[in-house]
Amino acid sequence: MTREDDGARVTTRAGERASLLAREDVEHGVDADGAVASSNAGARKALVGALFGLALICLGASVNSRATALPSLGSAPKLTLPIYIMGDGKKGSEDATKIAKAYAWLSGLLKTQSGMSEHEIGRVINFQQATFPSRWPETHEVAVAATSRIDPDSLEKIAFVGGAAFDNPDDCGRACGSQLSHHTGCLLTHMAVWNRVIDSDDDTFVLWESDGATLNAVHPLDYPKLREHVPDDFDIVWLKPDDHSNGQLIKRFKSAAKGLWDPTMDSRLINGNDVYLYKFDKACNWAGTPSYMMSRKGAKKIMKFIKEAEFADMIDAWLSRHCITRCDDPKVCLNLNCYIAGNLKVPKGALGGYVPDWYDVEDDEDVREVDSRIVSMMDDTSKFNQLGCKHSKSYEGFVPTAWEGGYGITDNSVVCDCWHTPKDGTFDFCDAKLKYPVEAQKAQRGEATLGGTNEGGTRETIMGSYERGFRARMALLDWPLGSHQRQD
Prior knowledge:
Elements: H1 3-18, H2 20-23, H3 43-59, H4 63-67, E1 83-87, H5 94-114, H6 118-124, E2 125-129, H7 140-146, H8 152-155, H9 169-172, H10 181-198, E3 204-208, H11 223-229, E4 236-238, E5 249-254, H12 267-270, E6 274-279, E7 291-295, H13 296-310, H14 315-321, E8 338-342, E9 367-369, H15 372-377, H16 381-391, E10 400-402, E11 415-418, H17 440-444, H18 462-477
Parallel strand pairs: 1-2, 1-3, 4-8
Antiparallel strand pairs: 3-7, 4-7, 5-6, 5-9, 6-8, 10-11
């Protein structure tokens, strides 16, 4: 058979596989017209074939030919940790092209580096059709699946999530309107994935939004090692590239994927020899959930909170805030255990906490780890900030704020949120005498430790900013604030 004949055969096969979207059900996926399909035994096979064919069409090359561009080492272990790619699978959509490209790259990688068959790849790569409230009843089945664990009588009470009680935008109301529809659909689609994981036997999974393949700081071949090295208490490991200080360094380990990144990615990721793992408990101004690793227990914890607290919000700011917020009220605080990992090393001058001598030294050690006793000591924000100030004058600091009665929480020894402009002069976070968490409301009244005033640069806390945004969103939804109204 000539090369031209082989190419024609591949193109024909691609068309046949792409047509599976129109002929067969796809597990929690879509047919060629974008309608949500039901799950059956042949669905996963159809999905793999369809995405394979769609990838050929979008990229103008076969997955096999794409894969041959990668070094054929075949030495990486087979990936068993599931990866969910969510987005709009509707034919012709921008998301569909992104998803196909992500699938082509990932499947080629697993074939060449892990020796995985198409069947094995199909068990690892999972597609989740996104729900779009503005298009309901189309894709509404996804919203129904997302809220299946919530009592129907309670569903309408929950902001954003409650829109799923209706199957068309008109009845759904403002949650499906132009200003909030994206946030409503995004949260519900993540919830649909969480429910799928809860119903599975998997204890850990990775989720990519449609652009997650390019906004992902840990190579998929390193996911098994990351799962091995992350502390057992983890709920979330953020995978989004970030070079800011978000918490104490825990360890670094050798990457198995140098030279195997997509060449269009950030060169700092492509050339990285190591994966760095940090705690994520001292982070402000975080937004975006393009990629993350989550434990099954973490998914169950979040879904339980939504059901029992009858509360949810925009997924990124909401979950990242619960990575630092602490309290004993299970209807106010999720108390998530969060980490962040990536080939993208945070510059030493930007780090708070303890930085070991080996941090900026490349060596052949497979794993370098900070003593767990030191990691525990860095839970003390004062110590964390003082060491950060010693590293560099450019250290930006982390200033946690107290509850001060907000949401009925009277324990001012636990963290409510954070001061989002720590270098504005309101608090001297390099001063060992500063006690945390700070009383943010006192600072806003012009009684800060450095004499800041409302006119002199004092900023509202993230809590204040979040609260104003939350109130505005609730007003758009015509939703009563209820138990989540701040009690000032």
